[in-house]
Amino acid sequence: MSTSMLKMYISFVGMIFLFLAIGLILLSRYKLRGVFAVIVSFLAYIFLVLGALIIFYIVFSGPTG
Questions:
Q1: If 55 and its partner were Cys, which of 1, 14, 39, 49 is the partner (CB 3.0–4.6 Å)?
Q2: Whole-model pTM?
Q3: How many angstroms separate the Cα of 4 from the Cα of each of 53, 54, 59?
């Protein structure tokens, strides 16, 4: 597998993490209450940070040939 394809798959994982974060944040704010909302919200923010770090790495690692 080439480096370009590997970076593409890693960026897909980052985008999936960001979409999961959006869904979980909306779920925790509007549908859940109490301790479940806190747990889901914490998990969502972890996905948000991981997704952002992955996308940041892909963007600033430069082009591949």
A1: 14
A2: 0.89
A3: 18, 15, 12
